[in-house]
Amino acid sequence: MKTLQRAGLALAAPVLALVVAGIITSLVLVAAGDDPAAFWETMLAWPENRSLVNIINEASVLYLSGLAAAIGFRMNLFNIGVEGQYRVATFVAAYFAAQAFLPGYLNTVATILVAMLAGAAWAGIAALLRVTRGVSEVISTIMLNAIAVSLVAYLLRKVGSREGQTIVTDTVPQSGWIPGISLFPDSVTDMYGLVFLAVLAGIGFSVLLNRTRFGFDLRATGHSESAAVASGVDVKRMVIYSMLLSGAVAGLIGMPNLFGVSHNYGSTIQTGIGFAGIAVALLGRNHPLGIAAGALIFAYLSEQANPLGILAGISPEIIAVTQGVVVLCVVIAYEVVRRYRNKLEQRAVAEALEAPGPSKEVTA
Amino acid sequence: MRRLTKIAAASAVLALALTGCGNDETGSTTGSEDICEGSSGNGPKIGLAYDVGGRGDQSFNDSAYVGLKKAVDDLDASCKEVEAGTGENDADREERLRLLADAGFNPVVAVGFVYSPAVATVAAEYPDVNFGVVDGYATAIKEQKNVADLTFAENEGSFLVGVAAALKTEAKNVGFVGGVNGPLIQKFEAGFKAGVEAVDPKIEIQTQYLSQDDPQQGFENPAGGETAATGMYDNGADIVYHAAGKSGLGVFDAVEAAGEGYWAIGVDSDQYLTVDEAQKKHILTSMLKRIDTAVFEYAEAFDGGSAPSGFVTYDLKSGGVDYSTSGGFVDDITDQIDKYKDQIIAGEVKVPTAP
């Protein structure tokens, strides 16, 4: 009974949040003069196989981004620089891979490591500023994002070449490509070969956080910095390590696309993944499985939004509203459920104290 | 931890909300005037896919819409417009094109070079559907019978407004505001500079791009356009030419604030016709990029059973680019501008495509 109740409460928050978000989105649609029924019909239709593949691909990338943000969050560090770290790392990786210093898949492996290093290095700037000069990582990572965009664009113009109206780096040698995996015979889209990177990163995150001394220190510092210091945790070192780790994971975000689809870094690279990752991490409560659920929900929403304009005549931008409302509702719902649970516990304790039977246990 | 969550949630929601707001304006425009809603002609079924922003920029995308409208009126076409979301990748764009093709739209016109890789992929999957890409380079990726890239000689048109600016500037100082610093907008810059220098190499030219590679910041950013143009006027320029889509609306706000004796030059559409009344007296001319012609002619050719393929270039010679005379501010110098125009058409003057 007790476990059932606990499980119910754990599920209550996300379900409550999704339902409320759905109601608010419907209200927005009605206010804008659109038809909510058509909206839900399109959104809830089972996606075509090719869309399922797109959802998985997008979710894997969002998941990596969410993990990168979550590592910082767990430690009370607000790394909003995932976007910049992802851009710098992807550019450096694409450039490195195109040089073909190593043959075949050795090049792929080395490139992934280079991407992690580049992402970590970019995040490391913010970490250094924080521990040596006390600069808030919120401010420094925002600024580093802007610098990253301009710096990469500048370097791209130095080393890249024109392709139509865009500028791209040289192509990664074909021997290092990771071909897509065909999930459905009738689907024209393939799953990224590097989807497993996201799975590996998730497992690594979980093990690191729950099974290592480092993970314990990280969580302890996140809960209470003073308590962590008192128990001998070197907070400055933790700040540096967790920022580096966060940046390294951010460096992975661009890899599935680099080796699977684009094979170069171009000026039309997808933007905003780093910011979406913050929302995804929040949605998933910084828990590895929760983030996966959050990434799937976000990917599902954006993929299903595609037909909105064509079939239902509704601007797909409404999905940005839905995503924002979902995040807001999740945060509120968890707070509501937390308070409700506290009240339940208090009542349970009070009942236990009043009841004649178990009072012995209490005194005992 | 909980405080952090709140801050994070607030920022995330704010970011998403701002994305929504930025595009809300275009959403409402789409609602007020929509040629596609209720269009049920027996002519071609045209699917038009916009890049970020969609209709309402009074420039690039709106020009494509004019062409679409003409196709509905003249060819009895029916149509569907679709907007892009922010932060998309090629997979999203491919899916949009597939949905249009699946829904029976043919031809499908993609507005913006960013669609080129997606069209190159999807056109191979739908050999019976014709795809046109405005500003595209899909042919360069993969040559296909059912793909046409509708490109423009923006450098030639920009040359002419550069000549106009050089002849009209009293401060001997002009400016150029570009959206995203890339090969496409550099064509505008190169042509404009060449035009100014052809008249008087001593004129100072200020150049500023709003973004290095973010289309949102480059083309959807009137505030940035206003800041950039205000800086140029403060720095001594009296004429500013913009090639920045919707951000150009900010350039017009700046010229209005600068007051008498300051000019702005529009782009893509004849912007004298669409700006606020108070700004009209500042719009010297506009570089016309006839996306409307390109879209209409593509649909017309398709209707006639001979949709083009490969690169189709619209230049001065074919009337694909030009300069506007609305407002009559350049009436006294049209002779001189047209002299350059003839020389370019005759091939005597070669206009560079990169600065």
UniProtKB/TrEMBL annotation, chain A:
Domain of life: Bacteria
Subcellular location field: Cell membrane
Keyword Transmembrane helix: yes
InterPro entries cross-referenced by the UniProt entry: ABC_transp_permease
Regions that span the bilayer: 7-32, 52-73, 85-102, 108-131, 138-156, 191-209, 239-259, 265-284, 291-312, 318-337
Alphabetized PANTHER family for the sequence: ABC TRANSPORTER, PERMEASE PROTEIN, GUANOSINE ABC TRANSPORTER PERMEASE PROTEIN NUPP
Identification of the protein by name: ABC transporter permease
Record organism: Nocardioides jiangsuensis
UniProtKB/TrEMBL annotation, chain B:
Subcellular location: Cell membrane
Top-level taxon of origin: Bacteria
Any single Pfam family the record assigns to this protein: Bmp
Domain ABC transporter substrate-binding protein PnrA-like as annotated: residue spans: 51-353
Keywords for this protein: Cell membrane, Lipoprotein, Membrane, Signal
Signal peptide bounds: 1-22
Membrane topology (UniProt): Lipid-anchor
InterPro entries: BMP_lipoprotein, Peripla_BP_I, PnrA-like
Similarity section: Belongs to the BMP lipoprotein family.
Protein name stated in the entry: BMP family ABC transporter substrate-binding protein
Annotated source species: Nocardioides jiangsuensis
